[in-house]
Design goal:
The protein is of the alpha+beta class. It is built from 6 helices and 3 strands, in the order ααβααββαα. The two termini are 14 Å apart.
């Protein structure tokens, strides 16, 4: 099974593999950390959805929605969502390039497609 590893931001910043785009994203994330995040229950969010959306869209807030005291969802602006998608795309591209480079170094180490699908749970 594939795993994502969380790496401290300071490790990313100092890495030789970190691109200018990565550093821009790190600065964005660091700046956003100082913002407060509102927490509301699922019932509160459902009853005040219009207000919550306005706070996110126009006030720049992020809202964490909880059910039974546990976080289940978050409301973020379209800009924040787009930034998150760019971060994920950049990470996926970086991983694909590393995998391709590893394959070029040692083609015999490649996993057969059927085994890859089984590891992802797509086949039995």
């Amino acid at each position: 099974m594939l795993e994502k590893k969380l790496v401290p931001v300071s490790n990313l910043w100092n890495s030789a593999e970190t691109t200018l785009e990565d550093r821009t994203v790190i600065m964005y994330i660091t700046a956003r950390r100082n913002m407060t995040m509102t927490t509301m229950t699922f019932v509160q969010a459902r009853g005040g959805l219009a207000d919550a959306l306005n706070r996110v869209c126009y006030g720049g807030e992020r809202i964490m929605i909880q059910r039974r005291g546990k976080p289940v969802a978050g409301l973020v602006s379209a800009d924040d969502l787009e930034t998150l998608q760019r971060i994920e795309d950049a990470a996926d591209l970086r991983d694909a390039r590393k995998a391709l480079a590893a394959y070029k170094r040692n083609p015999k180490s490649a996993m057969p497609y059927d085994e890859f699908r089984r590891n992802l749970g797509l086949e039995k």
